[in-house]
Amino acid sequence: MKKVPLRTCVITKEKCEKKALLRVVRTPEGKVIFDKSGKSNGKGAYVKKDETVILKAQKSKILDKVLEVEVPDEVYQELLKEVSYE
């Protein structure tokens, strides 16, 4: 049996399968992006694929603290768009 990679959501602190989470990355250049592939270089943080969790992250600015840089609103909009397609 293949081992399933688990990651921790920075908001809920739940351990989930990688595919149940969205990855936000601070690139080496300092830009913050939504990492659809899950393989981009840089410091990453995982957020659960849940609209309420994403909105809580935006309101509490937890991603700003974790990634040590201000996360633009466009990144949150991309995350919400991704959740609405599911």
Note the total helix count. Answer: 3
As a percent range, the share of helical residues equals 25-40%
| Poorly predicted ranges | none
CATH architecture: 2-Layer Sandwich
For the biggest β-sheet, the strand order reads: 4-3-5
Name of the level-1 CATH class: Alpha Beta
Radius of gyration: 12 Å
Describe the sheet with the most strands: 3 strands, antiparallel
Distance between the termini: 27 Å
What would CATH call the homologous superfamily? YlxR-like
Number of strands: 5
What would the principal axes of the Cα set say about the shape?
globular
Q: Total domains, how many?
A: 1
Secondary-structure-based class equals alpha+beta
Order of helices and strands: EEEEEHHH
Structural description of this entry:
By secondary structure, this protein is of the alpha+beta class. It has one domain: Hypothetical Cytosolic Protein, Chain: A (2-Layer Sandwich). Helix content is 34%, strand content 26%. The chain has three helices and five strands; from the N terminus they run βββββααα. The protein has helices spanning 51-60, 62-67, 73-85, and strands spanning 6-8, 15-17, 21-26, 32-35, 43-48. Helix 1 (51-60) runs antiparallel to helix 3. The protein is globular and about 40 Å long. The N and C termini lie far apart (27 Å). The model has no long low-confidence stretch (mean pLDDT 94).
